[in-house]
Every structure is written in structure tokens, then in C-alpha cells.
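Hi everyone,

Forwarding the result from last night's run.
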Amino acid sequence: MPGGLRLEGVPVLSVNTKERLKRGLEILADIQEQVYLMGIPEYPKPKHTPEAIADVDLSAMSNRELEQLLSQYTAWTAYIGTKLAEAEVAVKAADAAMKAVVASLKASLLKDGTPKAEIDAKVRTSPQFIEYDLEYLKLYAMREILDAHNRAYSKSAQAVSRNIELRKLEYEQEQRQNNVSGFKKQWANQHRPAGSMKRPGT
């Protein structure tokens, strides 16, 4: 269950509102259980939090340090990705609950003889709608924050990965140049004209 939604700690919500939202979250819990039964464990939270890419001088890091940093960024991208998926489900569940509440309120107002032109305004100012809207906004904000973090870690991992690849290319190019230079020297020695070698004392 997403850590940002704790129904027991939201005193502004009525009992009925909590129950409706809780049913939506039960769907998420059921999905998580099904995934677990498939033998797929929950992705563990990484132990180490890497520095922000803007605070790191990649050029000053050793190859091993770059690989460790890439591993950390990749791990956090994967971890936050799972939490983002959970938040997406929670937002959809809250949205479905919101639509059910709106439909119920509209039906009730129509039954009471409220003019159709006034229904939308009355629905949006009703305490029940305001309660759901508040909780939906909390979930939406949580999803957006997770998405921002996920994209930031993903881009950081890509930046480190490109740096590693550039170093590999530079190393391979240097090796090729050394090999070509060595071959030219070897070829020159093997094809040196006879008598071109200097004699001792000359």
C-alpha cells in the first residue's frame, strides 16, 4: 500500500468515505498478493542513496566508482518504479470511487427535485465530494512526486552509463592506436634496407 495514504490517520474523512477508499486499496493489496504468489518478491529498498548527479564530478571518478554510482541510480529507478506503479493503481481506484460518489450524489439530488442546472454546483460543494477530492489530490500529488523522482534517477543512470561507454570507446581507440603504432615499428624494422643498421663506433 502506498505510504502516502494512511486512512486511519485522516480524521477529516467520514467512516463511509474511508470504507469506499479502503475497498479501492484492497484491490491494490490483492494485486500485490497475486504478484507475490507468482514468486516475484517485492523489490527491496536500496540501502544507499546516491548523490544528486549535479553534485557529482563524473570525470574525477574512477571506473569502479562510476559503476557503483550507476548501480545505485539503477536500483533506485527500479524501486521507485514499483512504488509509482502502486500509486497509479491507487489513483485509479480513488478516481473510480470519486465517480461513484458523484453519480450517487447526482441521483440523490435529482430524486429530491433539484434543478439540473444546479446539480453540478451542489455536488462539488457537498462535504462528501470535498472529502473524496482531498484524498484524490493527495494520491495524485504522491504519484507526481514519485514520477519526478523516477525520471530524475533514470536520467542520472543514463548520464553515468554514457560516461562509462565513452571511457570504453576512448580506451578501445587508444588500444587500436597503440597496436597500429607498434605494427608500424615492427614492419619498419623488418623491412629496413640491408646495410642501414649503424655499426658500432660509426
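The CA atoms of residues 4 and 141 lie 10 Å apart.

Cheers,
N.
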